[in-house]
Amino acid sequence: AAPGLLLAALAGSGWPIARGGSQAIADALAAIIGEHGGVIETGHPITRAEQLPPGARWFFDTSPRAMAAVLGDRLPPRYRRTLQRFRYGPGTCKVDFLLREPIPWGQERYTRTATFHLADDYGQIARAEAQVAAGVIPERPWVLGGEPTRIDPSRAPAGTHLAWAYCHVPAGCPVDVSAAIIAQIERCAPGFRDVIEATIVTTASEQAAQNPNNVGGDIGAGATSLRQLIRRPVLGATPQATPLPGIYLCSAATAPGGGVHGMSGYRASRHAQSSRAADRS
């Protein structure tokens, strides 16, 4: 499902980004909730099911591990074990760049996109991922990044540009690997170092600390193994539904997986609506 969604988006308009920054997506969703009378509360960590309102439908936009911890013995033992055994992917080390000039790619065709993937060849990607899987930080990682101000100048002050890039590292890795990331970009865009004004580095361990859903710094909400493409986290027409009525897991840890597409929440809400209608009939 996820590859199909991705290919459809690419065929329609290329790889999209939010105008004004990713915060615009959160603001739009918050506005919709407000229009329907909803209230968003923050700063209230939930660690026990007793903290949740009784009689309501609960939607967990969390990792499977977090939902299992909150619901505890309320879950059937087999389902709880499934959530606890859910596998997570590698960590990521991310660098945000403030640039004096756009990345000097050297070829005009490379300036027409806001997203880039950098590696010497497939062999480098395979070697780097094998090293990460073995718990080793790759010396020459493959790098995924973006240069959003190429197509949305409003994201940066006049006369400056923004870029970001990350690479995979072992889960929970506290090491700053920004030098390797910069070196990979420099190999593909000579002179890149000279246009860097400032950087902010977020290691895998910091990713996990900032957002507990990013277990070990995994920003993909779970390993994308063949098994977990099919069983994410369980096999079924609506994997967002749990054995407990009215309780759903609606994060990217459910099919169709990671990405800003909203399908996990959509499927959970549709199931909740149909279940509610059935209860009334």
UniProtKB/TrEMBL annotation:
Record organism: Gordonia hirsuta DSM 44140 = NBRC 16056
SUPFAM superfamilies: FAD/NAD(P)-binding domain
Top-rank lineage group of the source organism: Bacteria
Protein name: Putative oxidoreductase
